[in-house]
Amino acid sequence: MPAAARPASASLLLLLLPLPSPPRFPPLCSTRSSLRALAPAPTRRSAAVRARRESSPPSPPAPADSLDCVGTASDVECFVDAGAEGAAPLLPARSPAASKVDGDGEGEAAVPASPAASGKELWEWASLVSPFFFWGTAMVAMKGVIPRTGPFFVAALRLLPAGALLVAFAAARGRKQPSGWEAWLAVAAFGLIDAACFQGFLAEGLQKTSAGLGSVIIDSQPLTVAILASLLFGESIGAIGAGGLVLGVAGLLLLEVPALSLEGNDATIWGSGEWLMFLSAQSMAVGTIMVRWVSKYSDPIMATGWHMIIGGLPLLVISVLNRDPALSGHIQELTWSDILALGYTSIFGSAISYGVYFYNATRGSLTTLSSLTFLTPMFASIFGYLYLGETFSPVQVGGALLTLVAIYMVNYRSIVGEK
Prior knowledge:
This protein is mainly α. The protein has helices at residues 8-16, 44-54, 115-149, 151-172, 181-206, 211-218, 221-233, 238-262, 273-295, 300-321, 336-361, 367-371, 375-388, 394-418; strands spanning 28-30, 67-72, 75-80, 98-100, 108-110.
């Protein structure tokens, strides 16, 4: 029976029912490509409250306080308070292009949107896509400049300036510094694994594989996150997710084995760029799991900045010991395009991309951002082809498609559930 047709006594009873406090759940870790959410089991009381809400105006979007994000590797992990209500989708709001045409509201007629509304909608979409564009193209920029600077120098330069900018930004916004040995231990461990190991393996692996292929392998990390979350936190991924894990392993094999066959009979996977990219992805996956621990002790944005600084320092030391070209008397040989590539990798590929993702994530639902994960390897592949002449073999194309489908299958329950 529609809410408007209920007897007055029933409506009064519903209005007198006190609203229960929203249930609290542990922070839920979610990546661009891996979102998980928990929901309370329905009860008679919650059904009555839900009936009351259906007859009330829509709730406003969840406040930013119900969601916190921590930057990890080339990603952002967000904690969602499952008890917060009214999360609005991140898709650009529908412009006033449709309106009622009769008094009963049964028909609709399209009304052209104003240029200002269309421009705002275009800007919203650009804001959503830009982090993935920056992450993908930063891989290409790193690949192009590493031969003249050295891998560990590029890895350190990607982290240190961006981390300093984030710490300064967080301090200007009144965010608290990590306090106590537990907080600094968590941030330091997070920095060594998620920043130093991830960027180190990534930069070293880019010397031996293409940016597009490397990006696909790295973006497979949600498969590992799903396994670790299941083992450590008891999270279930369901039958579709389990099938996605199997499909993901097959996709990764198709990506990596053909590359080894091209290197000759003496080639082994242990020294290949694909293996280093795989290690980079595993570092990022462990970092994703660590976010729950880190966020217990530190402000998320401040932790993001400090973990980049702490992770960048050992990479800088390794760069000096490794006598990377940029630190062994060859820095004057860098061209302006090399300098711009380094700046782009650090500022846009780290600091700005994290900031834009934080901004979008705190505005509403994370489902849209999660569904755009395929854009990072897509941008890396397109610009790797345009600027570096990189190509995929037919088998690797099949492996890339299998891997991306597998990522979607692992995320299927959370994406469909939030919709």
